[in-house]
Design brief:
The chain is α/β, with parallel strands linked by helices. 51% of the residues lie in helices and 10% in strands.
Length: 562
């Protein structure tokens, strides 16, 4: 399960729900909460082990809503030869470490391994901690995992396995890989234990995670994907269109899946083989009349109009574009490999095809200047990407992920502290010790070099967090409660009318939120354009903008206090 222990002030990292809670919310908001989290990496590993006759159990605590204690009890009762944990991102770190610590404390003697993107880049810290981790699998896990399990079962030495890291004579050792699965189509479909669980519990299994490729050939310094790809012998590989279609057909027939979340770093990919697999996949979806919608993440320099037409016919509904910035200086600094003009053309192309756009933006970073931020605001306003999806998601501060080039560069320049190994290696006695160790492993917070940008950002963040809370947390809960009340008061006409008035106001607030964000951005630009940044005045302007918007949406409801 997820738990935030960092000091980063981002609502999306602190507001954590179980997936079963998300599934019960009102359908009006389901476009943003229906992606319950299958762990696709774990599911792929389980399928591969089962294909090779290794009995394997998946525990998805977020979907099954199990406490750490229940997870520990289940593992201890089964007493498996090995337990594996996936740390996809930092929110998974603390609970993973706590379960491992308690398993060892309660007497589990089997092998404990960890994998996942986050774990791959903090493997030295994980192994140096005293919680009881035996190994870390870096990068793609199928081959090293199968070899490891077979060695453990036969009680053979496992420390020479490629792709594995472990402790030797007080040092973390990593055995580089000598083999990669080139043809991803030979791998079994991901195990769908989580979907079967939801289906058996009576939930609608309309969403599934899937992948069509692995890896990335980009060089963006803020991202761990380039470093992850370097762990494999081939940086990018894809499945065949036939294999992909067969898995989608299975998901639709077995679970009634209506929406697919493609986890590819770059869905379109690279070269003729990549395009061929998408053409085959799309044509088979269309020919067989498979009714499906899907999400994908796409680089702006891989977009082609004809391909977008085909993808739309096959069901592509919403796509994430890695736009990142409206400042060419920053795009160059971050080695993004695109121009602002290319970003604008990509947005125009996506919008003209009628897709729902998810604009991925890094609004501020350590080196963002006033002019950089103004350029980015101008880009957002000109491209009108504030109209799409949840516009608050554009307000991102660059995270200096462990293992990214950006994090390394700042550490080398002495502008970012290195982890304190004396904290990481300290024996764990209680929860406070564990929290301290995990915090030391996490991405570091930093101060933006430009003081004016730092001041403005610190004013903006609380208001953006509040709006994000309303749209992703408060209003969905409120709407669910109101709908239940309306059903129970079906004979009370006055009460139903009051509820409908509130619902109409909330829908208006939601539908027009982009205009509010646009006005906040324009006010931010005006503040930055002045010789002296007055944060007090800026804050008062933002409050007035939000108040006027709420009065426009809710009118008399606000005056009556309802």
């Amino acid at each position: 399960m997820e738990k935030n222990i960092s000091i980063r002030n981002v609502f999306r990292e602190t507001a954590i729900r179980e997936d079963t809670k998300n599934l019960s919310l009102n359908p009006l908001f389901n476009g943003f909460i229906n992606r319950y989290r299958e762990n696709l990496g774990i599911a792929c590993l389980a399928a591969y082990l089962r294909q090779n006759n290794i009995p394997t159990k998946i525990i998805n605590s977020n979907i099954e809503n199990k406490s750490n204690r229940q997870i520990e009890d289940e593992i201890l009762a089964d007493n498996p030869v090995m337990v594996g944990f996936s740390i996809l991102y930092e929110l998974h770190l603390y609970n993973t470490m706590e379960v491992i610590f308690n398993l060892r404390k309660r007497g589990y003697k089997g092998h404990i391994t960890i994998g996942g993107p986050c774990a791959s880049f903090i493997y030295e810290f994980l192994l140096n901690s005293t919680v009881g981790i035996d190994s870390v699998i870096l990068g793609e896990g199928e081959l090293p995992m199968l070899t490891l399990v077979n060695r453990l079962k036969s009680k053979q030495s496992w420390k020479d396995i490629d792709g594995l890291a472990y402790m030797h004579n007080g040092e973390a050792v990593y055995n580089q890989k000598k083999e990669t699965i080139s043809d991803l189509s030979v791998l079994p479909f991901a195990a769908r234990d989580s979907l079967y669980y939801l289906k058996n519990q009576g939930y609608s299994t309309r969403t599934a995670s899937i992948y069509s490729s692995r890896g990335c050939r980009g060089n963006c310094i803020y991202c761990t994907a380039p470093s992850s790809s370097c762990l494999e012998l081939e940086k990018w590989r894809c499945r065949s269109g036939e294999s992909l279609y067969e898995e989608v057909e299975f998901l639709v027939k077995e679970f009634g899946v209506e929406y697919l979340y493609f986890c590819d770093v770059n869905f379109i990919g690279y070269g003729s083989k990549a395009l061929e697999r998408l053409e085959v996949f799309c044509n088979k979806i269309i020919e067989n009349n498979i009714k499906i919608n899907f999400h994908a993440e796409i680089r702006v320099d891989s977009i082609k109009p004809d391909l977008l037409n085909l993808l739309k016919k096959a069901g592509l509904r919403d796509l994430l574009l890695g736009l990142e910035s409206g400042s060419q200086r920053l795009l160059n600094l971050w080695r993004k490999g695109v121009t602002v003009e290319r970003n604008l053309r990509a947005v125009e192309m996506v919008k003209s095809h009628g897709f729902m756009l998810e604009p991925a933006m890094i609004m501020v970073s350590p080196s963002t200047t006033k002019q950089d931020l103004i350029d980015t605001i101008d880009f957002i306003v000109e491209s009108k990407i504030y109209e799409d999806n949840v516009p608050m998601n554009m307000f991102n501060k660059m995270v200096l992920f462990r293992g990214s080039e950006a994090e390394r560069l700042l550490r080398d320049e002495g502008k970012l502290d290195s982890p304190d190994m004396s904290v990481i290696t300290k024996p764990v006695k209680n929860e406070n010790d564990l929290v301290a160790i995990c915090k030391e492993m996490l991405a570091r917070e930093y101060k933006i070099f430009d003081d004016d940008v730092e001041k403005v950002w610190e004013v903006l963040v609380p208001y953006i967090n509040k709006l994000t809370w309303l749209i992703q947390d408060y209003f969905p809960d409120y709407m669910s409660s109101e709908f239940r009340q309306m059903r129970s008061n079906s004979n009370k006409k006055e009460s139903r009318q009051e509820i409908l008035t509130k619902i109409i106001g909330i829908k208006k607030w939601r539908d027009q939120i982009g205009e509010l964000i646009k006005n906040i951005l324009l006010a931010t630009k005006e503040c930055l354009s002045k010789n002296e940044v007055n944060v007090g005045e800026f804050s008062r302007v933002i409050v007035c903008i939000i108040d006027e918007y709420e009065i426009e949406c809710f009118g008399d409801i606000l005056k009556t206090g309802t």
